Sequence to fold (1024 residues):
Amino acid sequence: MPNSFSPKVRALLLIFGVVLAFVGCRRDPVDPPATPGPPSANGFDPAQGPLPTLSAYGYFTGALKDLQARPDVLPYDVINPLFSDYAKKLRHVWMPAGTHATWNGEDRVLDFPNGAVLLKTFYYDQVQPSMQRRIVETRMMYRWEDEWHFANYVWNSAQDEAFLDLDGSFTAIAWTDDQGTQRQVDYRIPAGPECRACHRTDNQPMPIGPKPRNMDHSYAYPEGSQGQLQRWVQQGYLDPAHPPVAEVLPDWKDANVSLGDRVRAYVDINCGHCHAQGSYCDYRPMRFAWHETADPVNLGLCVAPHDQIAPGVSHIVAAGRPDRSMMAHRVASTAVDVRMPLLGRTLVHEEGLQLIETWIASLDPPCP
Amino acid sequence: MKNIVTLLAFASLGSAAFAQGDCASALPINLGLTVVPVINGMPPIPTCVGNPASNGLWYRYTATEDQALQISTSLPVNVGLDTRFHVYSGSCAALSCIGGDDDSGSGYLSIATVSLTAGNSYYIAFDNFWSSTGFTVELSLGTPPPPPPDNYPTFTSQTLTSGSVWAIVDMNGDHRDDAVRVSASSVFIHEQQANGTFSVVTVPTPPALHQPSWSLAAGDIDGNGWNDLMYGGGQGVSFMLRSNDGNSFTHIPFTQYIFSQRTNMVDINNDGLLDAFVCHDVDANVHFLNMGNGQLQFIQGGLGETCGNYGSLWTDVNNDGLVDLFVAKCGCDPVDIMMENHGYQNFISTAVANQMADSHQSWSAAWGDFDNDGDMDVLIGSSSSSYHKLMRNDGNGNFTNVTAGSGFEGFNGTSIEWTTHDFDNDGNLDIMGGGRIMMGYGDMTFGARPGSVSNGPVGDLNNDGFLDYMNSGTAYMNNGNDNHWVKVHTVGTISNTNGIGARVVVTTASGTRIREVRSGDGFRFMSSLTTHFGLGQDTQIEEITVYWPSGIVQTISNPAIDQTLVVVESTSTSIAETVNVDALTIHPNPVRDQLNLTATQDITGAPFRVIDAAGKLVLGGRIAGNTIDVSMLQAGAYTIQVLDQQEPMLQRFVKQ
Fold:
């Protein structure tokens, strides 16, 4: 299981899944209507803006904190998620009946129909003092009039409701991670404009994770594992005419994958959205998307940095010398103006840093 | 923990016990090759290059004659190694950096040449910042470095603190610049003493909601005589207002989300109260209007509506006495902003007309009078390419791109910081950025000073009239030359207390130089609020004129050179006596909406300003179509000044 919700939830998901499978089998592929109809059975009208509470959408049944998604709200994940201060995440997608996403190339985010909703719930387990799960926020992107819009729902302490809040805030969390390590974070819940910094391509808001290349793996649905893209088609959420993914992203944590490819997979999801043409930091020379990093120069290998941010940092990646490399220096930093990624983390991702340092150390020095 | 302490004690005992383990036991070293063993002694302090290391090895070299000594690890035998060294004069109790190097050799090897005086001993310390591995060093008599042309400034580094200094600004009202660093709960002020030393004053603050992670600005927001601080944080802005006794700060946090970049303090609405401005990286810019009752009003919009705002600078572009706004932009919507301030918070975009509406991926721009013709020119320096743009202010509302042949054409240095100051006191503004000081020649051309620099706050940390700068906790003290100088410290009475926005003009035999009092230049640091003028070899000042934001013009005749002049804003002087009242006619008078101007010469494009009966500057801009819209003025008597370059013109009128 990609997440550890209660057996009861699993059972419910199983039931829904069976219903879904049945519905999915019966449904003939249809073209999305030219103008979307009422987007949601429960009354969410994107034209009117986001609803004041998460529960109002009716996406989840039962106790809200159990996040028991109704049958047409499909959980999904990505092969490589962005590091977000060790928060766990649960993703859901919903689309208006009769609409589906279409293929836009395996390294690009799917083209979602108007009315589509992406939900990402951030939570921590074993949170002090009660050592219970604490759900912090549910971020939402919804597509309307061919544009993506943001909403965010901040959970209350009773964990029975989450309220629309795009003002941004901090909340202190202390927890014990799955390895038993005590951790704490002053967790950042983003403000609306903060979302746009990273979720932006060519000045248009854009999701980051749901690219076919980063989704084409098996997901443990309650009724059994199934390829995600297959399931999306079966759900009616993806154009069945899509081509196969030629190059699926490796899991960066997979020790059987070469060090170089693990790094490429890691920077693809953690760095590629800003260091891409038309994005937040496209004026720096790095290009971190998987399809661009086959050329190590795009990773910054032996490329001098534009700005001398620390004495002695000679290259973005100085072959054989993590201590001389801007990439390692910034990934190791928690300083607000130095750390990379700049937004979305305040802690060092120790495993990610170790990967990058090991990789840089493995490269044959020197840079010319 | 106890074990660790014990281990450390043994380690330090050990290191002191062998020769060359510290300065006192430095081994003599001679010309030729010397094998340096594993580096395991006491670290070099102060560091002459980079950040402190944990270990070092020490050598002593005695010069038998005046000589240039080349110290090099850049030898074939060292290929693949990584070295760093520091060179000192003085005694072990008082080491003074005279050189050092990290990576000037091949790969990560080091090479530097230092000038030595016969009979003196010098210390060479290698450190393990990058590697403890031993290597071979070669000392040889090198070619003396050519004497620096044009009195190029040189600096001596001095470690002030282990923290990061964000500001060089007078914090205690003694007109000497102090060094300021901050934490979440304190402001640390390294107060400059009369004898050149620093005394650290720690003033507690309430916990800062936002720390100055991106920038810091200073100025006296509440007018109590103590400079306050503005913290530009990643999620918002906090103000720290210093108390009347100086012993504490009041925290004014703003919870609204701002991805702060450059912060400034400036009187945006020219009401005599200092306001504040912050560039927003991902949304419309924000300013804070000072309501005069201790309240700052958060306002978003009107001064740049889109994202990608990095380097704001407030300067009087059109010489009308009102500060205008320039924003260097980058990333999202990277087209620079330029807005002329026409008074009454009426800001008009002139970026297109002035050929400023293009993209440099710039985080800051350096505004100064690079050709000493009385108006502000600009170097918009790139953060990511050699597309730097040098624009000459032609004084008539036009700018001309003079990058070609200026020294910035093809200059491949890049940085997020670009500031301008006169570092060699020759009277010509220099530009710090792109890893260099580009020495200004006073004619819109520049040449790179040898030696790399990293930008930091700029001010006069030893009150010698030569500008110093800092990086992190290290001060780079200007060694000076025989040029003369004057500094002008403005104290506003009708204008804001600091006189921020004032234009100061110094006239000597060799010409006229202008500077402005600015809070916040470059990208992130806060540099001195005292204006500084190099005078070259001139030994007399004819006059100093201060154009206050209030509209008051104040002239001091024949002040002494080589001093800091404190000018307190006074209503007792005025420009009125010196202007030509016959050259300009106006009608109708009294006037309701449109004031028509007729002049004996073409005044199209000339700056004008309107001053009320109380002497307050209320309206400004450039003349277009020989009419001025005065419909927004309250009824009363006014003076209009047309600031033609030849001769200022003046008329009085009544608004109905």
